[in-house]
Amino acid sequence: MQATSNVEDVIWDRVLAINLSGVMRACRKVIPYFIENNGSIIINMASLVVVMDLLIRRSNWL
User: Fold this and answer.
1) By its UniProt entry, which SUPFAM superfamilies does this protein fall under (predicted)?
2) CA angle (19, 27, 11) in 5-degree steps
3) So what's the pLDDT on residue 19?
4) Which H or E element spans position 30?
5) What is the distance between the alpha carbons of residues 33 and 53, in angstroms, rounded to a whole number?
């Protein structure tokens, strides 16, 4: 991890691709299955570690 001021765009793009686009792609893949089987739900979970890091000012992204 690096300070925000030192993170290159290519690294940031990869972080977003994994954390945001990856979740969206996974959700899109299962939607047809849900439609065929009379529905279901998707629960996307996230960690509070980032919030805790920000509160105690130890995050690598600061």
Assistant:
1) NAD(P)-binding Rossmann-fold domains (SSF51735)
2) 20
3) 83
4) helix 22-36
5) 38
What is the Cα–Cα distance from 15 to 57, expressed in whole angstroms?
21
Q: How far apart are CA 20 and CA 26, in angstroms?
A: 10
Full 3-state SS string of 2-25: CCHHHCCHHHHHHHHHHHHHHHHH
- Whether the model clears a pTM of 0.70, i.e. scores above it, the answer is no
Alpha carbon of 27 to those of 17, 23, 31, 41, 56: distances in Å? 14, 6, 6, 10, 33
| E strand or H helix at 34 | helix 22-36
Q: Determine the Cα–Cα distance for residues 45 and 38; give it in Å rounded to an integer.
A: 23
* 17-48: pLDDT as tens digits: 888 898 899 999 999 999 999 888 888 777 77
Residue that the structure tokens 């299962």 belong to: 30
